[in-house]
Amino acid sequence: MATPVETGNRIETVDWSRLARPLPGWFSDAKLGIFIHWGAYSVPAWAEPTGELGAVDEATWFAHNAYAEWYWNTIRFADSPARLHHRQTYGDAPYDDFLDAWRAEQFDPQDWCALFARAGARYVVPTTKHHDGIALWDAPGTGSRNTVHRGPRRNLIGDLESAVRAAGMRFGVYYSGGLDWSTSDFPVIDTDANVRALRPNDAAYAAYAHLHVRDLIDRFRPDVLWNDIEWPDFGKHSGPLGLFELFQHYYATVPDGVVNDRWGDTHRDYRTSEYQHHLDAEGSPAWQNCRGIGLSFGYNQVEDDRHLMSGPQLVRHLVDVVSRGGNLLLNVGPTASGLIPDGQRRTLESLAGWMAVNSGVVHGSRPLDGEIADPSDTPWIRWTRTDAQVWAVVDAPGGAAVTLPARPGRLDLASAALADGTPVSARADGGGLTVDLPVRTAETPVAVGFAAS
Hints:
26% of the residues lie in helices and 22% in strands. The chain is of the alpha/beta class. It starts with a strand and ends with a strand. The relative contact order is 0.13.
């Protein structure tokens, strides 16, 4: 794919297809990653839980943003509830006061990573710089506006990278290349069009962002390079400080690394959806859904159990994504002190309990050929395949017979068993397949495996 790009006073055609490569197998097999949104916005930790991105109309979304990490933008609306909350709680305090109030005094990266690994995550992607422009490491050119010199006074990315790799997971980085509200007196963003129109595109910011990401590559060798919103137009070229060169350097440094699709019309290894937004990406050969346990990525103190996915809901969402060929990048939003909120931790622990028995249904799996079986919503059934094993993940009352929409001649019914090896009775029933599910000890779905015949 070659695209013309205006860089200053000239137009250059960049052949991005030269960067095309097979998707590394580890990413296809991983299936579950953990996203971490943690920043100065975790201090106010406030947003209206209006709904999921993609399910709330644009006119409502920006002034009533459910994302706590967008706090700095949301409080700029003259009549937004966020602005009223800010004035009542903090007066006219500037946003950067939250950086100095952020202490991360209870941050235990080993504890975080032990939980993530138990939950079945194979990679972890923390935010290194979000739209507020605050770096979580001593990024070049940030002066003192980073967590090493202010607030936590720690290289949070370095601490996380060490803990993630020690726990046996791969490490990635999120970087907001498309928005940085600290680079100018930015107008309030109130439409999707303004997200693109108001992003910084000048040469100085393009170089600034380039050097940040190159520093992340050289220092942390991230397995995932996850950019957000876009990349400054002035940097979309193949010369020095250009995006083409940055991708080349990344692949030379991390040969089996992967990059997402939020760099503009340039290069990607896989596409992304977010909650219910950009669901068209989910038909791609390689894709990833990202979402929070609740409605926000950054910690939102307003959210409660009504807004959080339960353990069973998370299991269903993960299996649904995996059954359709995707990965799930599930977000955790820690408190400013560095604790994973109780509600989020409960959901992750529930997932960990299910994955302790059923991880083989997820990791390394692929979608099942539709000629063998079909998914169903009543009862809820999804299918995956691992090597010669076919898995039906069923959310139905235990102690009862359930008919699966499958062609019994394509499965070895005598081999039917739960993931822990417990045999299950299975028989052909008309044009389908009936299994006798055992009584469930939890509300999470049950996986029944068959040898493919």
